[in-house]
Each structure stands twice: as C-alpha cells, then as structure tokens.
Model the fold of this input.
Amino acid sequence: MTATLPTASHGAPALNVLKERGQREVFCGLTSIVWLHRKMQDAFFLVVGSRTCAHLLQSAAGVMIFAQPRFATAILEEKDLAGLADANEEIDRVVGRLLARRPEIKQLFLVGSCPSEVIKLDLGRAAARLSDVHSNVRVRAFSGSGIETTFTQGEDSCLAALLRAERRDANAPESLLVVGTLPDVVEDQFARIFEALGITASFLPARRDGLPAIGSTTRYLLAQPYLAETSLALDDLGARHLPALFPLGVEGTRAWLWAAAKAFGVERARFEEVIGPAERRARAALGRARERLQHKRVFFFPDSQLEVPIARFLHRELGMELLEVGTPYLQQTHLADELSALPTDVVLSEGQDVERQLDRCRAQRPDLVVCGLGLANPLEVEGFTTKWSIELTFTPIQGFEQAADLAELFTRPLLRRERLSV
Done:
C-alpha cells in the first residue's frame, strides 16, 4: 500500500512523502548489538531467541565463541515456546551462571528477539527481578525484534531502557550530553573540541557503566537521527534537545557544534578559532570526491535511518542529484533542519514496499544505489552500482576529520565499476 502525504517542519516547505507499507528488506534490531557491545566495554547482551538469532549475531559480529565475546543467546526450545517450562526460572539460572563466570560485567541487557507474547517471557519484569538479586549489576531489557524495529532502532531501545530507570536530578550541573553511539576515535575528537570551547560534555552510551546526572540544566545533542524513544526519555528527565543538522560532512558538523556553542554562550570568534583548522582541512579533502560525484544520480532504499542526513551531505557538499530518499521511519522533529536543507523537488519515501521501489529504481537508472545487503547483489547483477548502507553504521563517518572518508564510501563503488568495465 502506498499513499502520498504532504509534510512540513519548522517552516520548511511542504514535501511530498510516499508512505509505503509492504514487503521490507532490512535487518532486525539485534544487529545493533554488534556496535553496542564494542562501545560499552563492561556490558553484556543476552539475547532471548532462537538458533537463527544466535547465528545472525555470530556472523554479523565476526567473533569466535572461544574469544568470549560480551554477547550470547539464550536459545528458546520447543518446550519454552509451548509454555511447558518455567521461562523465569530458566533465565534466572542462565543469568546467575553468566555473572558468576564473568564478574567484570557491570551492565546486563536482556534482549528480546520477538515480542513477549511469542517468547512467553516478560523481559522487563525479569530485568527488574534480576536487578534486585544481583545488586552490583545494572540489568535492563529491550526489544530487538525485527517484527517491531529496523536494525538501528535496537540502539534506540537500548539507550531508552537505560534512561527510563533514572530519576530527574534537581542538582544536576549545567552540562552537554551527546547521545548516540560514536566510534571511539570520533568521540575523542568531539570531546577535545568541546573541552576547547569550555563546554562540559559527556557521552551516551559511555564506554563504562555510569550515567551523568540529568535534569533541567542538561542540554543534549543527538549524534544519530534514529533515537526518537531515547529523546523522549531524556525529555521526561527534564533535559532539553538542541536541534541541529547531524554531524555528517563539513556543513553538518559545523552546524551541530555551533548548536552546542550557542546554547552554552560561546562567542563566535572563539568558536571559529577552535573549529577553523579542522574545518578547512575537511573542505579541502572533499574537493577530490566532489569532482567524481558531482552530477551523479543517487537512489536511496530505506534501511538505516541515516538516509536523510547522508542525502543532504551528498547533494549540498558533493553535488549529487537525489532521485529518491527512502527511510524506514521519517523522524520529522529531529530531521527538521535536514529536511529544510534538501531540494524541494526531492522524492521522499517512508516505510518500504520493495517491489514498487525496485520498479522506480529501474525506471530511473541511477548512477549509484544505496541499499541493504539483500538488495545489493541482485541489483549489481542487473548492472547497477550499489553501496551497502549498513557499512555507514560500522564506519567512523561523523565529524570534520571523517568527512573525506564518508565521501570515499560513495566514490569507491563507482571506481570499482569503472575498473571492472570491459
């Protein structure tokens, strides 16, 4: 089913959005565990699911079991699904054994691979009970179900679960909270910039257990565009969102940092002094990529929810022509500035009806297709040049220093196609 609805945000011109509800081709929310467990170095993710879930995580993470990774799957057997076994006793036993073997774990996440009606276990209640039993470990639960989420929403659910158990702190000092998983190298770069600007900043998720005090004096910047549930949880704690472009490319990074600087009273001259050298290097580094990508036509299939800010970067900084920008969910509040920066004639689609989108893609014959793994190989066989969108979630792409690396992710497939052409 497809419907066309107008949308406008923060004074932006109305954009026609195709609302599509049909067959989808995306990974489930369990995939987010791959980058979350690398970031949160004292956390363990216990998936309650099937053998298929275990194989997915094993393959996606590329970690051998004997390496003792910080994730595992409590596999549901037929007797569990039939309600013949006490699932709560089983999860208590598994968690007790896990924490006895891995005393370094300070955070434990119970991750549902399916809704509680399917797995016959309320993981939220199980987490609360286990937190009382294991008082030195923070136990939380969230859903990674592919029925309910796309793969980046797993992170949103995880961070929201952390925050929901917190209380508003009336004595919280004035500070900035950067929300959304960032590679360590990017986080360190931003931390140095905020320190140079005189802004006290912390990051969520943190590398080690511990949340900063959050209250009405807390301002937060979203580093990722798919954190709607997390943002609501922060609002409930009294924190205030700083709307801005997302820190992708030079333009996005500059606007994102300025939103924080302005909120904390940093003078414009000081801001320019701090970011100037990195911004100039980034602009110069983008020149080569722009020569190759300018006037190339790109089509986005919905996959990661990064599509809108990436499209803005490709169009405004590299001169690419946007044919269609598809995204699983269009978070209009958080993407208001991004939507305003897109050309008014761009086609936006929310949700997925994969056959219809394939038809539109084939009819327009783009120079580059950004899509999920399941669509990339078939489209390559048809002669299209593709970019795996999931790579954007595993690669450091935020900030000035990574702007050229982000551009290179899109020049590389075109170069490969040229070299393979006979």
Q: What stands out?
A: Residues 4-13 have pLDDT under 50 and may be disordered.
